[in-house]
Amino acid sequence: MIRALLLIPPSPEHRHIARFSFQSYESKGNYHLQPKEFMAITGCLGERDEAVFVDGTCDKLDEAEFLRRVDGLSGDIIIFSMSNTVWKSDHHYLKEVVRRHPDTPVFVQGDIFLDKEAREYILSECDGVVFYPYMLDIEKMAGVRQSGGAELPGVYNSSGQLFFGKNENRLHHIAGGYPRHELFLSSGYRFPFAKHKKFATVVTTYGCPFVCSYCGSANLPPGVRSNDSILAELRHIESLNIKELWIYDSTFGFYKKESVPLLEEMAAKHDFSWSTFTNHQICTPDFLELMKAAGCHTIILGIDSASESNLKRFRRNSTMSKLEKAIVKANDLKMNICADFILGLENETRHDLEKTISYAMQLPIDYASFNVIVPTPGTSVSEKLKQDGASIFDLVNFDSLGREGNIGNKHLSGDEIIALRNKAVRKFYLRPKHLLRRLQKTTSIEHFQIQMEEMFAIVGKTNRRKGGAARRRLGAFSRRRGAFNRRRGAFGRRRGAVVSPAQFREEWRKSCGLASGCECAD
Length: 522
Hints:
- By secondary structure, the protein is α/β, with parallel strands linked by helices.
- The chain has helices spanning 36-42, 63-71, 87-100, 116-122, 138-142, 227-239, 256-269, 285-293, 308-312, 320-332, 350-362, 380-387, 414-429, 432-441, 445-460, 469-479, 481-486, 489-493, 501-512, and strands at residues 3-8, 17-19, 24-26, 50-55, 77-81, 106-109, 128-130, 155-156, 172-174, 199-202, 205-206, 223-225, 244-247, 273-278, 296-304, 336-343, 367-372.
- Helix 7 runs parallel beside helix 8, helix 11 (350-362) runs parallel beside helix 13 (414-429) and helix 16 (469-479) packs parallel to helix 19 (501-512).
- The chain is globular and about 60 Å long.
């Protein structure tokens, strides 16, 4: 019997930081999603194995309380979740956990480890990096120190090991059980589109079939779970008296050979209400009708930009005519629609951003998620900055909310992009037309309360962004990449070093031959 300890550290200022393998970010509203990678890991446990779960972020633990709980735990293996968005804090907690449990194998997971530099660095402090949580052998992982570091499925535990990358896109089938949902029912978890506060997260496919170069999900080859396993999971969720699902696929329905019969079974034998990410190329009228019949009330579509030509530069194939047809059909079915947008892609001008924002206002949609572009590890954005001399540890603390600043592009500063993003949020959500639409679609007092909490939080976060160290650290960097690339200096070669903002600015000045008082690096 194996006893696994699953640990998520507290977040600075009790921020709602989500730590997923493809991307970490701060919640743009009041929501806090369940940790789907940890949920998948519990499905890899044997029937007699135990799991102990501590989420310091969801439960808003302070450092002392979190470490007290860690001190009181004993187990055969520790799996620790980390975030690129709050790397310094998470790294501190990891070192404390390792110090308190020196004899227990420790594995980490998180988006920063999509970057090879980060993986190589962290191997000196733990036993391995979980990169595909559905293929783990927990017993072998617990015995890794006795086995001499043998290769483990779904785990990066030796330097130079093959790691799933953006060219590894073959479809594969996922075997194994389903999550132990009873571990993840804290009231601290909240879903923004739910009609009921109590919800469960279900994954039918892990990874993404698309290869958009600005998205971390492109690094994870798509894996499909069997319908038998999913349906058994749904019966278990029903036994917990849960009616609301968040089907957290990157692209629900891309493998229709499995998803069509699943939807038919859900429509015939279950009564869930649910939301999911999908793609307008998948959302044919008949497929949307199937989704609606199976209980889907909200779809999330990645529109990203109003410029098809700019998206193609990032290997994002989007057809506005198909997109708009899918939105019309979803509205006909009285489904809610959330559209995701990315602001600040390379080569985008102010006119381009304003065009995207204007397009969002014109669409008959219920929610809009405006995201500023960030150097997510493993993406083309991050790789370009690294080619210009940055270490992956110079690119931490950024996230799509823009709290700690933004890298900007050659046309717009980070501050300008964030200001446009915040203006777009307020403009979209405070329109009387939009408020009336949401009120008409509200189905209960509970649903109304969820909606109001989210709207106030989303709009409120546009007014209290901090001028962060991350913005200061890379403000000049984004404007002077050429000079920086020619004068990389010590910090471009210092793999794994975490530099302070002051150190970064001083080294940047030296690399450019600037005086210490120069303002361009502040």
